[in-house]
Amino acid sequence: MSKVIPFARLRVSVAEQNERPRGECTHRRIKLEPNGGVVVCSICGAMLSPFWALSMLSEQYGLALAQIDRLNARLALASARVLELSEELDALTTQERASKASPTET
Hints:
Elements: E1 30-33, E2 38-41, E3 47-48, H1 50-101
Antiparallel strand pairs: 1-2, 2-3
Coiled coil: 68-95
Keywords: Coiled coil
């Protein structure tokens, strides 16, 4: 045991942003290789960290859910507006029928 080399404690932190130079692959298309549990970019063929791939997929999933929520909100507003316009059209049609049924003489 005399050959054990002591290592200083290292702090591990997660980088906030992973910026890449322009033109470098963003690895948005990944495939799972069953041999060895490897994650590979389908575009550039780079081997990726499974943790990075899971993190990227989680982020994309969150963005997709937020987009769905925004679209549902827009759909609800559009449906409310269609109902409002339909009621206005019905009111106009009723008024036109009433004015045609009782013509006034001038």
